[in-house]
Amino acid sequence: MTVADELAGDFDQARARARARRRIMVLVLRIVLAVVIVGLWELGTRTGCTGTDTETCVIDKFFFGQPSGIWAQIVTWVQNGTATGPLWEQIYVTLLETVLGFAIGVFLGIVFGVLLGRNALLADIAGPYIRALNAMPRVVLGSIFIIALGFEIWSKVALAVVLVFFVVFFNAFQGVREVDRDLLSNARILGASPRQEFRHVILPSALSWIIASLHTSLGFALVGAIVGEYLGARKGIGLMISTAQGTFNANGVYAAMLILAILAIVAEMFMTRLENRLIRWRPNAVTDVTF
Amino acid sequence: MTSAGPIPSTPAVADANRPAIELRGVTKRFVSPTGAAFTALRDVNLTVAAGEFCAIVGPTGCGKSTTLALISGLEPPSRGEVLVQGEPVHGVGRSIGYMFQRDAVFPWKNVLDNVAAGPKFRGTSNGEAVAKARDWISRVGLSGFEHYYPHQLSGGMRKRVALAQTLITEPKVLLMDEPFSALDVQTRALMENELLDLWAATGASVAFVTHDLEEAIALADRVIVITAGPGTVKAEYRVDLPRPRNIQEVRFAPRFVEIYEEVWNSLKDEVQVSYERATHLRAS
Predict the structure, then answer these.
(1) Cα A110 from Cα B33, distance rounded (Å)
(2) A chain contacts of residue B100, beta-carbon cutoff 8 Å
(3) B56-68 in b/e burial notation, b at 16+ Cβ within 10 A?
(4) Nearest-CA distance from A290 to chain B in Å?
(5) Each residue of A165-216: pLDDT tens digit?
(6) Could B104 and A289 be called an inter-chain contact, meaning their C-beta atoms sit closer than 8 Å?
(7) Cβ contact (<8 Å) for B94 and A185?
(8) Are B97 and A182 in contact (CB < 8 Å)?
(9) Is the peptide bond between A194 and the residue preceding it cis, with omega within 30 degrees of 0?
(10) Is A64 exposed, middle or buried (0-12, 13-18, 19+ CB in 10 A)?
(11) Rounded Cα–Cα distance for residues A237 and A112 (Å)
């Protein structure tokens, strides 16, 4: 090992240490930020109060909730269940609606996107209708779905499907149309049949567009499920929120929101992993090999 | 033939049984989306003999790439006839290899799958295609990189992948559209040498489009000069430098310099015309 190598080694180690230090610092500051905000909130609901009238406190916990109250609400839900049954059942129902809506919406979006992207005549015929449907605030369809499909999960799945469909559809449509001409020519020269061209060039090329839409779609699926439950349901986190709202239980709304946020983050993590798996070939993917 | 003077545009090698590529009175017009017609090639007569390495040079926008598209069958001519190995071209033929100017390797396939794509498309069994691909990967010096994706490779390595991908189908006619223009000078010279070695082993006929006259003379048996667009054949020059050639060294041969001067005298007028048009367009 030469002196230069040793120096380089020292330098690398120093840099690795600096990176580790920074990571720890960021983590600590993050926790501090949360503690400060939640702490101030809790403090606000407990200071300046005269007697039992919550209105006199700096923050009125009746309207704005209280961290300790939110925690107590979650504990109650876990231990005693919610008004509509055990907590895990509500989570399960909302997740089921989200996943079903996402899967069906993505599937339909890809099928129609590819179909219309490949067929100019179909695209010209259906184009204005699709644009009109897309311009409409689709959440209003939720009411139709509740009337048509009832209070069980399928009305929420339908709403999630409608929200997801358009996001994926437009990406798939664009992806199929933006295929690199040279790649198509190359495949043809190499002897690809139209089917092989589709399978080896058009589909993978569109896939990078489709995958880019999946993150947004998952969020929309969750929105569809929750809004659907709001409009009318027998179970689910959306229903828990609307029940809490109906009883002026601010802590209940926040507690349900917290659960929802955790679900969203976990779902997002799964999505990122799926994404990295599907497009390993893409630059900047996590599997980047350095040499 | 010892002089490098212009030679008549009849088939270059008289005793070759049939030319590998033949364009007879070919005109190609494109219609732009606005409806304006644009003539890319006008009345082109061109022949590439079997086993010949033919370079096509011309100023930017003279229709060099269009010529290759016509030979490959990707584009039909507006008028005239295109023959490959004596047969009129209808659609993309099986005996053609085509290397594009931009990277046309599939970014979602690793090196092995990229190189094996041709044989697989053509119905070779998986195992056989992979074995053949491994052989070609080692021939272009990429052993060990089989499972890398194109974005993980350097520009020169991607070109090697493209070269292997093209040559694995054993094309009788090899079309190359400025394949090395994006590479740095050293890598380019390396790739050119490698191309000559690989080509010598295959005996394919090559139509090599470039705007770099030095590259054209260093590689080819014959250089065809195309006029500023609409392109047509202006002159042809035989390159009688001995083979095997070393790209870096052949440039210093006195004969090379002679040929260069002669071809450049013909080419520079076209470059001038093309340049004036471009600047005129920009000014107006």
Answers:
(1) 29
(2) 182, 185-186
(3) bbbbebbbbbbbb
(4) 8
(5) 999 999 999 888 888 889 999 999 999 999 999 999 998 888 888 888 888 8
(6) no
(7) no
(8) no
(9) no
(10) middle
(11) 31
